[in-house]
Specification:
153 residues, 2 domains, alpha+beta
Length: 153
């Protein structure tokens, strides 16, 4: 007769193994972004789901970051996009405070060399905020106070 381990123990062991594999690959373990999306904490179909607030200060801080730093900051593995990029979708605060949206990070020699984002504005100023930064070209930002706007006011 074969003795089976309790389901809870199998689940914990499986999650531990997945976490170890993720750590070896330099990717975060299955991120728990259910707080802002409502998806299961182990939803493998959406590696691009994040709850990170896409505020200008954060996006600026990611310039020149390593891939590992981006993965940690976004708390998700990201979805690969052409030109060595990673795509993320954030639903920060379930959309109640703004600053969710889409962001792409592009890498060269494991460092961020370009960032493009379309961010939801706060409730006090609804609408889309565009953010573009490239290490080789001038960038632009529609965040409040930006001098180099992407779109005309």
């Amino acid at each position: 007769m074969m003795v089976r381990e309790p389901k809870a123990r199998r689940t914990i062991l499986g999650a531990t193994l997945l976490g170890m594999l993720a750590a070896v690959n330099g990717r975060p373990a299955l991120a728990d972004n259910a707080a802002c999306w409502g998806y299961s904490r182990d939803d493998k179909e959406r590696p691009d789901i994040s709850c990170t607030a896409l505020v200008e200060r954060f996006l600026i801080s990611m310039r020149g970051a390593t891939r590992a730093e981006v993965l940690k900051a976004m708390n998700a593995a990201g979805r690969p996009v052409p030109n060595d990029g990673l795509h993320f979708i954030s639903n920060y605060a379930r959309g109640t405070k703004g600053y969710g949206g889409d962001v792409n990070f592009f890498f060269d020699d494991d460092k961020v060399t370009a960032i493009t984002g379309e961010v939801d504005g706060p409730p006090s100023a609804p609408g889309n905020i565009e953010f573009i930064w490239n290490a080789k070209l001038p960038g632009c930002s529609d965040f409040p106070g930006s001098r180099n706007r992407c779109t005309k006011p």
